[in-house]
């Protein structure tokens, strides 16, 4: 399958997955609590996933479902984990916010903002120390770059020339705060200059641009060029989570960014190039729908963990 189609297929899967979770936690109330979804940001995950190899390590944050799917994690096992079932990636103990899928080297999802960044330095150091050819990609939001952990981690990664790509998804908001309310910096990428680190700013709604940038970043990392901070400019269509009313997000701003939908953007360029028909698009959309429907059925039919299992897998 050509790269464009792979990117489109993945974005459609992520979109459907997140829309379904939104529905499950709002309308149908089959899921308790709230969901943190990445609707509108699919290109960042899809483009990155397509650029990585299975041995590459993923460290991610609270907005993780797209990253995990694009890294090759199974929708069934992610969904079962979110439902808290025994068949989930972490036997129902992590829920939506802390999924690890070591099977695809997605080693850590942490909702401690900025918490994953030093961990990524650790896995990148392991690659360098053991002489293994893999990179670590660490996702975080613009808000995480205000944390001390971000600065300490970037300093060390640069000093030790580690094979790590710091992937900042700048979606304009940090909770209910716009970027200009939490920093005077206009581009997060400029922060890496303090650590003499290479940077790049990429249109985060252009899946192909993300793919090309990450493919090059990976190759450079592996050739010993050291770490890189890539800032993806994108936008969160929904609120911080599915209980957020978005009162602070101007409606016209949301409309502008919906006009830059990453799925529609790729669809338009493929259609123009004559590599996609409307029928085929509908078929891909329907396939994504079936995959997610299957995941929900799998999760709902799966058993709950037994209370006696609560203390299993506790190492300390
Ligand atoms: C250390 C820490 N501080 C605060 C929070 C509460 N919190 C959870 S998500 C979030 C917003 C993070 O924004 P950003 O890093 O920009 O990512 P985004 O949600 O925009 O994807 C905050 C403040 C937390 N989980 N951890």
Protein architecture, described:
The chain has helices at 3-25, 42-51, 65-70, 75-82, 116-130, 148-159, 179-182, 207-222, 251-258, 262-273, 278-301, and strands at 57-60, 106-109, 136-141, 164-170, 173-174, 177-178, 198-203, 228-233. It is an alpha/beta fold. It has a single domain, classed as Thiamin diphosphate (ThDP)-binding fold, Pyr/PP domains (Rossmann fold), CATH 3.40.50. Helix 2 (42-51) runs parallel beside helix 8 (207-222) and helix 5 runs parallel beside helix 6 (148-159). The longest helix is centred in the C-terminal third of the chain and has 24 residues, at 278-301. The chain is globular, with a radius of gyration of 19 Å. Residues 62-63, 111-113, 140-144, 169, 171, 173-175, 240 line the site of thiamine diphosphate.
CATH class: Alpha Beta
Number of domains: 1
Largest sheet: 6 strands, parallel
Strand percentage, roughly?
A: 5-15%
| Spatial extent as radius of gyration | 19 Å
List low-confidence stretches.
Answer: none
Question: How many separate helices?
Answer: 11
**Class from helix and strand fractions:** alpha/beta
Question: Roughly what percent helix?
Answer: 40-55%
Order of helices and strands: HHEHHEHEHEEEHEHEHHH
What is the strand arrangement across the widest sheet? Answer: 2-1-3-4-8-7
Number of strands: 8
What ligands does this structure carry? Answer: thiamine diphosphate
């Amino acid at each position: 399958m050509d790269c464009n189609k792979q990117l489109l297929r993945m974005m459609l899967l992520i979109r459907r997955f997140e829309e379904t979770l939104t529905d499950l936690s709002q309308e149908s109330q089959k899921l308790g609590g709230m969901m943190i979804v990445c609707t509108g940001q699919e290109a960042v995950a899809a483009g990155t996933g397509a650029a990585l190899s299975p041995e590459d390590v993923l460290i991610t944050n609270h907005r993780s479902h797209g990253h995990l799917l694009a890294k090759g994690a199974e929708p069934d096992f992610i969904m079962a984990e979110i439902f808290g079932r025994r068949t989930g990636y972490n036997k129902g103990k992590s829920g939506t916010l802390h999924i690890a899928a070591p099977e695809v080297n997605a080693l850590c999802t942490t909702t401690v903002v900025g918490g994953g960044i030093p961990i990524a330095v650790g896995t990148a150091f392991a690659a360098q120390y053991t002489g293994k050819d893999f990179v670590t990609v660490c996702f975080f939001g613009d808000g995480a770059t205000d944390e001390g952990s971000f600065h300490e981690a970037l300093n060390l990664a640069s000093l030790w020339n580690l094979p790590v790509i710091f992937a900042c998804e700048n979606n304009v908001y940090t909770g209910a705060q716009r970027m200009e309310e939490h920093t005077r910096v206009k581009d997060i990428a400029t922060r890496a200059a303090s650590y003499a680190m290479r940077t790049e700013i990429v249109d985060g709604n252009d899946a192909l641009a993300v793919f090309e940038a990450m493919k090059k970043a990976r190759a450079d990392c592996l050739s010993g060029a050291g770490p890189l901070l890539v800032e993806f400019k994108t936008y969160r269509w929904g609120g911080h989570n599915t209980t957020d009313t978005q009162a602070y997000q101007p409606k016209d701003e949301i409309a502008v960014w919906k006009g830059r939908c990453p799925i529609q953007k790729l669809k338009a360029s493929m259609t123009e190039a004559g590599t996609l028909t409307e029928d085929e698009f509908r078929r891909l959309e329907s396939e994504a729908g079936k995959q997610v429907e299957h995941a929900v059925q799998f999760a709902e039919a799966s058993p709950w963990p037994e209370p006696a299992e609560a203390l299993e897998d506790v190492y300390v």
